[in-house]
Write a structure and sequence with these properties.
Layout: E1 2-5, H1 7-13, E2 17-19, E3 27-28, H2 29-39, H3 44-47, E4 51-54, E5 57-58, E6 65-66, E7 71-75
Parallel strand pairs: 1-7
Antiparallel strand pairs: 1-2, 3-6, 4-5, 4-7
């Protein structure tokens, strides 16, 4: 599966896109977020404020399984004007 990182999450990880292995039956989104924070500690505080999107749909439930072939996007709060 692919993780897409935007804004401050991308800066903290150092990459806009990551390939990530998940089991064939998937892994809950919250576990994926924890693994991402463990692998890239700089992104940990940012993840607490992020919105997560699976295959173009905002996740309201982080127990939703993320499966091989899915696209999981990490969207921190955006600012601008």
């Amino acid at each position: 599966m692919t993780i897409l990182l935007f804004a401050s999450a991308r800066e903290a990880v150092g990459h806009p896109r990551l390939g990530w292995a998940v089991p064939p039956d998937g892994t809950p989104a919250d576990r994926l977020v924890r693994e991402l924070a463990e692998r890239f500690p700089k992104v940990r505080p940012i993840l607490r404020r992020c919105r997560f999107v699976r295959n173009g749909t905002i996740l309201d439930d982080l127990h939703t399984p993320i499966r091989p072939g899915d696209e999981f996007a990490v969207h921190p709060p955006y600012g601008g004007g």
